């Protein structure tokens, strides 16, 4: 009778090679392969903050540049010249009532022109109008010239009105003549251009005066002047 062979020794318990690793999901293989091929895009949270900081750093110099350009334009943009009557010397003033009321005036004016700009002023002409109670009597025009930047120039103008007829205001003129004070309106106007780099900008200065003249002794009683825009 044959001996019964002992049963083979059992091997220690080991994980089967077919079992999945502990870090893998124990789902079906198709599902695992699909999950392994999928990608997840992660957006950094601080990316938006970096963009805001970049915008602030870019807008700062831009706003500063615009502010400097605006300030430079305000300072460099030309202003109108200041015009004033520096001197008015009467040579002859007479009023005749026969046969009609006529006025004869001869005077020498010196007009002061101040250029407040940082560029030279080239004026084309100086016009001086004279009138009585709003009615124009005549005009004198002098030639052009140049006023340096931030400088003052004096322009001479000789006015000569010979026998100007006054019809509408003849009665008022006779009354003023009897009082010894005849008010004449004078308007001095300077027109020119200021050359700002490649631009030529027109400017104008204007002043109005009411000059009270005593025709008997050829003197100025008083005068009131005010600039006009």
From TrEMBL:
Residue ranges, annotated region (Disordered): 1-31
Question: Where found, per UniProt?
Answer: Membrane
Name under which the protein is recorded: Water stress and hypersensitive response domain-containing protein
Please give the superkingdom of this protein's source. Eukaryota
GO process terms (BP): defense response to other organism; response to desiccation
Q: How does it sit in the membrane?
A: Single-pass membrane protein
Task: Give any Pfam family that matches.
Answer: LEA_2
Q: Domain Water stress and hypersensitive response spans what residues?
A: 90-210
Q: What cellular component GO annotations does this protein have?
A: membrane
| Amino acid composition bias (Pro residues), ranges on this chain | 1-10
InterPro entries the record matches: LEA_2 (IPR004864), NDR1-like (IPR044839), WHy-dom (IPR013990)
Its principal location?
membrane
Q: Where are the transmembrane segments?
A: 58-77
The question of whether Transmembrane is a record keyword is answered with: yes
């Amino acid at each position: 009778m044959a001996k019964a062979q002992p049963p083979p020794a059992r091997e220690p318990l080991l994980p089967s090679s077919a079992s999945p690793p502990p870090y893998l999901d124990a789902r079906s293989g198709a599902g695992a392969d699909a999950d392994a091929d999928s990608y997840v895009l992660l957006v950094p949270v601080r990316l938006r903050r970096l963009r805001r900081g970049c915008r602030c750093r870019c807008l700062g110099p831009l706003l500063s540049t615009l502010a400097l350009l605006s300030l430079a334009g305000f300072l460099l943009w030309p202003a109108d010249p200041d015009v004033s009557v520096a001197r008015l010397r009467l040579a002859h003033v007479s009023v005749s009532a026969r046969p009609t009321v006529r006025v004869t005036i001869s005077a020498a004016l010196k007009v002061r022109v101040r250029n407040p700009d940082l560029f030279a002023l080239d004026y084309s002409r100086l016009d001086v109008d004279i009138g009585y109670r709003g009615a124009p009597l005549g005009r004198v025009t002098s030639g052009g010239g140049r006023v340096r930047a931030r400088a003052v120039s004096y322009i001479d103008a000789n006015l000569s009105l010979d026998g100007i007829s006054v019809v509408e205001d003849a009665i008022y003129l006779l009354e003023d003549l009897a009082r010894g004070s005849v008010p004449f309106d004078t308007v001095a106007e300077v027109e020119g251009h200021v050359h700002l780099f490649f631009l030529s900008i027109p400017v104008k200065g204007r002043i109005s005066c009411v000059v009270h003249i005593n025709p008997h002794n050829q003197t100025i009683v008083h005068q009131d002047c005010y600039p006009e825009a």
